[in-house]
Amino acid sequence: MEARTIKHRVSVEDIVTLWREGLTDREIAERLAVNPSTINYWRRKLKLPANRKNLISKEELQKLVDKGYSLRRLARELNHDISTIKRYLNLYGIEV
Q1: Among 38, 41, 58, 90, which has the minimal tally of Cβ within 10 Å of its Cβ?
Q2: How many other β-carbons are positioned within 10 Å of the β-carbon of residue 29?
Q3: pLDDT at 81
Q4: What whole-number distance in Å separates Cα of residue 61 and Cα of residue 86?
């Protein structure tokens, strides 16, 4: 007996709907039972920016800044590069 593959079709509407809900490519792929690269391909083709989850919360960052942490110490405590910490500080409008 010959093996057959079943192609799982994904509608662009489903991708866009889930993207509008703020899901990442990986989360959309899990919901639609496809490879994340498929979602990435269609999202880029549709010129939709990637939805990313914030890795550092504003509250967490503000709390450490209020304690007087330096940029270097923030990076060490939060286990991120200084450039990442700077980006989040800028995103949240927090000054060190």
Answers
A1: 90
A2: 20
A3: 92
A4: 11
